[in-house]
Amino acid sequence: MTSSDDVTLTSLLTKTVDVMLTSLLTKTADVMLTSSDDVTLTSLMTSLLTQSLTCRTVSIVDQSDCATCQISSLIRKLSEREPMNKLMLEPWKMKKGRPWKSLGSMIATLMFVGRMVHRYNPYFRQLLVRYIQKLVSGFDPYIQITFDEHSSDALSDHSNSFIAIKHYLEENSSRTAKKLKADSIREGQALLLGMDDDEEITDEYQGVKVWWSCNSKVVQLSKSQHDKQRCYTLSFHRRYRDLITKSYMQHVLNEGIAISLKNRQRKLYTNKNQMTYAYRPTKWAPADFKHPATFDTLALKPEIKKDIMDDLLTFSKAKDYYMKVGKPWKRGYLLYGPPGTGKSTLIAAMANLLQYDVYDLELTSVAGNTELKKLLLETTEKSIIVIEDIDCSLDLTGKREKVKAGEKKETMKQKTSQVTLSGILNAIDGLWSSCAGERIIVLTTNYVEKLDPALIRRGRMDKHIELSYCSFEAFKVLAKNYLDIESHELFGRIEELLAETSTSPADVAENLIPKSAEDNGESCLIRLISVLEDAKEVAMSRKLKAQNTVKKKKKAEESSTLEAAKESSTLVAAKGDYSIRYYLKYVSNYIAYILVRPSAN
Ligand SMILES: Nc1ncnc2c1ncn2[C@@H]1O[C@H](COP(=O)(O)OP(=O)(O)OP(=O)(O)O)[C@@H](O)[C@H]1O
């Protein structure tokens, strides 16, 4: 056996404990291990072999190579656990001079058999290890719980508890463990360090010590395929079984989930142009969510901003409240307003404030109501589900559009989604009731008046937010963001022009962006003023045109009434019909003629 051999802590522990057990039972060995020394596997075995023939003590010498950590961790493990220590110390205290020469040959045989088993049948080795572990556990008051990397039913899915423990240990192990593994790197963030294989750390909970170790084991995927799987092992004294299995484990899982949410790279999922692969059972395609919008950069009136932020933060912390009142922990937002007023930007700011993922649901890519439900149920907690421009992607009359004669089905498909209004109402209600964990659904539209009242009623869309044209306060936020200007003499003129025009924040923002190297804050403001003046002129001419159209319409109506009155009075007179009915009609038409005539002039 060489120092570079692949030796796991378990196999080494098993081998050594086996020797000790044999010694204990046969009382033939007198072996001394110095617990603080670091050794290599080779040197340990060599020392055992050579010195056991002549000496009563096997010294372990310090050599730094790959097996050192494993053995030193073994020694630490043995020395930290009293009963195991005892087990080892017992044979050392035995009388000197006992015949134990057979120990050398026994170890040599064990090594040989062990090597053969390791090389030719790893499963038999695992069996042997398990058997020896069983034997040892009779003396061991310590309980071990193993958390495998993959859940037993799906090898492709990481077990949730494994992931939570991994994050918990990443946070705690980097301070104490000596062998660390750089797990993943997030842009602009610190390196995440976790425990490496065969490393062990100690954790303390309510004054009780527990030990976590990280190991790898071989799992059989099929007859010819094996895979290496990591697992975490938690060891603790059996006297603390209840405390650890209930309270401590819950604490680890909660902390782990909180850490993973804090450290994760948030995702933007979309179902647009999705392709389903065998290895990707979901129709959501993920991408990293890196939108920079925040409530600070959002051009909105401060009171609206504050109201939205308060609402979101209260919602995100209201788990217990929703439980108490028996309502699913969900909230619906309806954002409406003209194009370019910041609906999409507000959604990004909301996701960044709450640290949620975003699911961008494209209704026109959804095959039908069943698929819609499935997609919504696949969303994870702490997410915002967005349906943009809902009026464009859904037939909101409640009826499916009929295929007109001669119109190809294909063309129909492109127009609106196959999802019906009732389908979306049911899906939203289903989502609300079937999923645990918080979710926000946001609908956006440019034409709120087109939406069915059932879709936007409170309970489905709890908060309605109107995003309107750029106010002067919103402009000041944009000027600060884009030009770093908080006040300027041109602000007064801009304020007047914004009040007289309907300019979206998108248009204002576009004119505040420097377009060349010569552009500076003032030149951008001047450009904005000239654009706003043009917009004012256009608005005025439109207004004039609209006024003229109204006037013309009114005139046309009046003259047609006049004509009708004239006509009927002439008719009555010509007929010479003096019956009471015609006489009354004549009088009423005459009155109408008298009333209308002055305005006609
Ligand atoms: N309120 C705002 N605050 C900051 N930037 C804004 C705001 N509104 C618009 N913008 C800017 O204008 C661009 C377009 O805005 P956004 O896409 O959010 O508008 P929208 O209302 O979603 O438009 P549409 O209805 O056409 O989808 C954004 O990239 C953003 O830079």
From TrEMBL:
GO annotation terms (biological process): response to stress
Necessary cofactors: Mg(2+)
CDD domains (UniProt xref): RecA-like_BCS1 (cd19510)
PROSITE patterns given in the database record: AAA
Keywords of this entry: ATP-binding, Hydrolase, Magnesium, Nucleotide-binding
Pfam family, one: AAA_lid_At3g28540
Leader sequence residues: none
AAA+ ATPase domain span: 329-471
Database matches in InterPro entries: AAA+_ATPase, AAA_N_dom, At3g28540-like_C, ATPase_AAA_core, ATPase_AAA_CS, Mitochondrial_chaperone_BCS1, P-loop_NTPase
Domain of life: Eukaryota
Reaction catalysis annotation: ATP + H2O = ADP + phosphate + H(+)
Residue spans crossing the bilayer: none
Single GO MF annotation: ATP hydrolysis activity
PANTHER family hit by this protein: BCS1 AAA-TYPE ATPASE (PTHR23070)
Family: Belongs to the AAA ATPase family. BCS1 subfamily.
Protein's UniProt name: AAA-ATPase ASD, mitochondrial
Organism: Heracleum sosnowskyi
Lineage of source species: Eukaryota, Viridiplantae, Streptophyta, Embryophyta, Tracheophyta
